[in-house]
Amino acid sequence: xxxxxxxxxxxxxxxxxxxxxxxxxxxxxxxxxxxxxxxxxxxxxxxxxxxxxxxxxxxxxxxxxxxxxxxxxxxxxxxxxxxxxxxxxxxxxxxxxxxxxxxxxxxxxxxxxxxxxxxxxxxxxxxxxxxxxxxxxxxxxxxxxxxxxxxxxxxxxxxxxxxxxxxxxxxxxxxxxxxxxxxxxxxxxxxxxxxxxxxxxxxxxxxxxxxxxxxxxxxxxxxxxxxxxxxxxxxxxxxxxxxxxxxxxxxxxxxxxxxxxxxxxxxxxxxxxxxxxxxxxxxxxxxxxxxxxxxx
Length: 296
Prior knowledge:
There is one protein chain. The chain has three domains: about 70 residues, Orthogonal Bundle (Arc Repressor Mutant, subunit A), CATH 1.10.10.10; about 100 residues, Periplasmic binding protein-like II (D-Maltodextrin-Binding Protein, domain 2, 3-Layer(aba) Sandwich); about 100 residues, Periplasmic binding protein-like II (D-Maltodextrin-Binding Protein, domain 2, 3-Layer(aba) Sandwich), CATH 3.40.190. Helix content is about 40%, strand content about 25%. It has ten helices and twelve strands. Strand 8, helix 8 and strand 9 form a beta-alpha-beta unit. The longest helix has 28 residues. The chain is globular and about 80 Å long. The model has no long low-confidence stretch (mean pLDDT about 90).
């Protein structure tokens, strides 16, 4: 073997692995298909392993190819982050941080955190992305996010967490609901209602926690609608399409025509946590964590 593997070989492999079609991959790369096939063959000879199963009908990754694609995706993600950081440093910035968050983080800590960060570390750039818990966990694992504000039961392996705020729950009712002004809430009074809840895509562990509230009260709710967006829940409740159960902190910051009845008497609590990947070497990680810990 008289050639060296270069970054372009891995880029070609990545493109074929995404397309699972050599002609389409060649078109994306603006190279001839025979040349692409030759580059893949060189890669397979270098690793001494077949990376694709090819026949006239389809192209599939081999087990070695599946492993290599995961590693190559991670590599190119790291290269992208390196490029971002180098550009920021060249602009005189310390770092660039990508933060994921769910809606309740906006009411709980995020605004003050951003104010403190800008005051204490003005050379850090921040990009905000409102994402569900599950999407944040996936992106954190892949180092596509630097931090995530999530509601989960357990911290996944490879990630670290700091609890930010522990909430009780609140029942959300339309303004004209006959029980909207009740002082002592009995959830059994609402067992015939339709419920609008955060879906499992928001967080499977959070969804299970909410369902345990109904289980403790001895009834299975009629879940009419599910969403990952708090404002959508409030608007649907305001339209009379059902009632909802949400973390109590969500009653702050939204101007909607609903009432909140506190469920502080039930044992269930939900914790908003800050998560990050312990292998993430972004220089801004330490700076943001220092600010968060001062706010605790």
